[in-house]
């Protein structure tokens, strides 16, 4: 039946493309999570009245985050071509998409981390200080632990945005379902390939959302 | 135990700066429950935060148990804080941790081994009366239970001093009393010095040995609780004392009486210690031919003894009333004429 509905779909290529999309999403989500946390925590702690209160660091970090958050992703990919070439050694294939994906998403997630940390009751941080906690303990055991549900729902949203970004990166040859839909589907006028690629992307998005929601529900004890 | 010497804390710079604490010198003895009362903005919150170095004084020194809190920082200050712990108005528990995990948090900070953390937490859960709730999350607890967790957490590293920052202000009266009883018990059982700040005279009355009254950053009055209740010197202290001795209903009753029976003399009697147990009123009525209306009365029990007030309306011949008042004074009862119609 599938063969009739999707006569032009090459299932092996489709599966390879799905794996590439999953690979790009997984790696970029992981690195976005780490870099975004660092940016968010730095923004938070350097803010006025916080543990590392430092106007210069705060302003510079804030400016970088805002700058990269504001560049449209498709333009960012093009701007980053020399950088990608330098780091990855090529501008084609899934790995070549990673720098743009991470640089596009990490500042966005960093803002989400900042908002999540600002939601934490100041009194809890004060309580940890009054017990003699080190800054490192406060970061890991108070800030991150207490905002974990918000951090997870934030990374879920970011990860879904990244799935979209991988498809966009596909247009310039990153591989994955985006490339497949564009080259094989659109340019060769095979609507069924485009449709199948869309369906697979939707499934990936739904699975990410499901896992994210489940994790938040399990973690939120408020 | 605790010495504050010429403490001033200013916020801000230059002419715009505000003195939150203004030249305060205090001594708090070992094992004492010391209360600091004041309205919001009086500087008591800042003062208590100077005791564990959450705020550093602009000038002056804070010494606790021989350690100069106001002069240390970094690791030394963090270690000192483990011996000067704190509980809060809004409990400030980590909601992501269970009761037991919250209590183990300060032990993790102090680097205590896991088995010892478990043992200590179990002991403390028992001490504060939360057995059976160790695996509950804070969101599943009532306000009073949350404060019990806060107290257990504060006791985890065997502190010498417990600071209470409006610890009962978010609780209902009954829960407040149970928490105050727990604090008294801890003070007696563990010999812990307790410093608390509050705006409720009830808290001072119920558990404190000594009290300092703060206004605009200064300590305006200080002394044994009973003494302050008997003879409040400053007008702000009188206002705090009247929170307990002159409830709103009494004032209404006086107003009402003045309208109903616009004659006679309203007097307030103050009894202290054993005077509260003598039948002064009965003998007054027997000795003098006057009518006596009881408007309002109460007895307040403080740590240092009982203290009672009685508001009476005396109706009769002015001369006889004068003699009656003199009689009361001879009986060592302090009187105060409120109105003379």
From TrEMBL, chain A:
Q: Where are the transmembrane segments?
A: 22-45, 66-91, 97-117, 138-156, 162-183, 195-212
- InterPro entries linked: AA_ABC_Transporter_Permease, MetI-like, MetI-like_sf
- The source organism is Filibacter tadaridae
Cellular compartment(s): Cell membrane
Q: Which family does it belong to?
A: Belongs to the binding-protein-dependent transport system permease family. CysTW subfamily.
Q: Which residues form the ABC transmembrane type-1 domain?
A: 18-212
Membrane association type: Multi-pass membrane protein
Keywords tagged on the record: Cell membrane, Membrane, Transmembrane, Transmembrane helix, Transport
- From the Swiss-Prot or TrEMBL record, give the protein name: Methionine import system permease protein MetP
**Main site of residence?**
membrane
Got a GO cellular component term for this one?
plasma membrane
Q: Which GO terms describe its biological process?
A: D-methionine transmembrane transport
Q: Which domain of life is it from?
A: Bacteria
TrEMBL record, chain B:
Q: Name one GO molecular function term.
A: ATP hydrolysis activity
- Do you know which InterPro entries this protein is assigned to? AAA+_ATPase, ABC_transporter-like_ATP-bd, ABC_transporter-like_CS, ACT-like_dom_sf, MetN_ABC, MetN_ABC_transporter-like, NIL_domain, P-loop_NTPase
Q: Which domain of life is it from?
A: Bacteria
> Does the keyword field hold Nucleotide-binding?
yes
* EC assignment: 3.6.3.-
Offer a single GO CC term for the protein: plasma membrane
Q: Which Pfam families match?
A: ABC_tran, NIL
Enzymatic class: hydrolase
Gene Ontology process terms (BP): amino acid transport
Q: Which UniProt keywords apply?
A: Amino-acid transport, ATP-binding, Cell membrane, Hydrolase, Membrane, Nucleotide-binding, Translocase, Transport
Annotated ranges, domain ABC transporter? 2-241
Question: Do you know which Gene3D superfamilies this protein is assigned to?
Answer: 3.30.70.260, P-loop containing nucleotide triphosphate hydrolases
What the record says about family reads: Belongs to the ABC transporter superfamily.
The record, for PANTHER family, names:
AMINO ACID IMPORT ATP-BINDING PROTEIN (PTHR43166), METHIONINE IMPORT ATP-BINDING PROTEIN METN 2 (PTHR43166:SF36)
Q: What is this protein called?
A: Methionine import ATP-binding protein MetN
- Give the originating organism: Filibacter tadaridae
The protein's gene is named metN
């Amino acid at each position: 039946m599938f063969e009739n509905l999707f006569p032009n779909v090459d299932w092996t290529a489709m599966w390879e493309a799905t794996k590439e999309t999953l690979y790009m999403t997984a790696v970029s989500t992981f690195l976005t999570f780490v870099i975004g946390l660092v940016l968010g925590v730095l923004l938070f702690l350097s803010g006025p009245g916080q543990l590392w209160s430092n106007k210069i660091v705060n302003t510079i970090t804030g400016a970088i985050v805002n700058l990269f958050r504001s560049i449209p992703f498709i333009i960012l990919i093009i701007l980053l071509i020399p950088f990608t070439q330098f780091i990855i050694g090529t501008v084609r294939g899934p790995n070549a998409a990673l720098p743009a994906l991470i640089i596009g998403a990490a500042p966005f997630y960093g803002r989400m981390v900042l908002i999540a940390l600002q939601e934490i009751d100041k009194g809890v941080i004060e309580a940890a200080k009054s017990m003699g906690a080190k800054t490192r303990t406060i970061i890991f055991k108070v800030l991150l632990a207490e905002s974990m549900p918000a951090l997870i729902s934030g990374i879920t949203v970011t990860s879904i945005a990244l799935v979209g970004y991988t498809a966009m990166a596909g247009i310039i040859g990153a591989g994955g379902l985006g490339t497949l839909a564009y080259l094989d589907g659109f340019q060769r006028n095979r609507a069924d390939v485009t449709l199948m690629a869309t369906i697979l992307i939707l499934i990936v998005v739904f699975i990410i959302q499901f896992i994210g929601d489940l994790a938040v529900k399990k973690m939120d004890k408020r | 135990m605790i010495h504050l010497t010429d403490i001033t804390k200013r916020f801000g710079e230059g002419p715009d700066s505000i003195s939150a604490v203004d030249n305060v010198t205090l001594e708090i003895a070992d094992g004492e429950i010391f209360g600091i009362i004041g309205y919001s903005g009086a500087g008591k919150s800042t003062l208590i935060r100077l005791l564990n170095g959450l705020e550093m004084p602009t000038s002056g020194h804070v010494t606790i148990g021989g350690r100069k809190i106001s002069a240390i920082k970094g690791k030394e200050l963090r270690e000192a804080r483990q011996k000067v712990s704190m509980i809060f108005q809004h409990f400030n528990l980590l909601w992501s941790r269970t009761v037991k995990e919250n209590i183990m948090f300060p032990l993790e900070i102090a680097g205590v081994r896991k088995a010892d953390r478990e043992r200590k937490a179990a002991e403390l859960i028992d001490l504060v009366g939360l057995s059976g709730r160790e695996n509950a999350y804070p969101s599943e607890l009532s306000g009073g239970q949350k404060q019990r967790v806060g107290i257990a957490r504060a006791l985890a590293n065997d502190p010498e001093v417990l600071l209470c920052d409006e610890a009962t202000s978010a609780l209902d009266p009954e829960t407040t009393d149970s928490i105050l009883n727990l604090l008294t018990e801890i003070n007696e059982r563990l010999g812990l010095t307790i410093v608390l700040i509050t705006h409720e005279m009830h808290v001072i009355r119920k558990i404190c040995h000594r009290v300092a009254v703060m206004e605009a950053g200064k300590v305006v009055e200080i002394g044994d609780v009973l003494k302050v209740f008997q003879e409040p010197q400053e007008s702000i202290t009188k206002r705090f004392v009247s929170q307990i001795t002159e409830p709103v209903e009494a004032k209404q009753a006086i107003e009402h009486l003045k309208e109903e029976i616009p004659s006679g003399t309203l007097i307030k009697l103050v009894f202290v210690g054993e005077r509260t147990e003598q039948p002064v009123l009965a003998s007054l009525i027997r000795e003098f031919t006057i009518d006596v209306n009881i408007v309002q009365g109460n007895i307040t029990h403080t740590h240092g003894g009982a203290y009672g007030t009685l508001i009476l309306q005396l109706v009769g011949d002015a001369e006889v009333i004068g003699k009656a008042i003199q009689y009361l004074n001879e009986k060592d009862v302090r009187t105060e004429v409120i109105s003379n119609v």
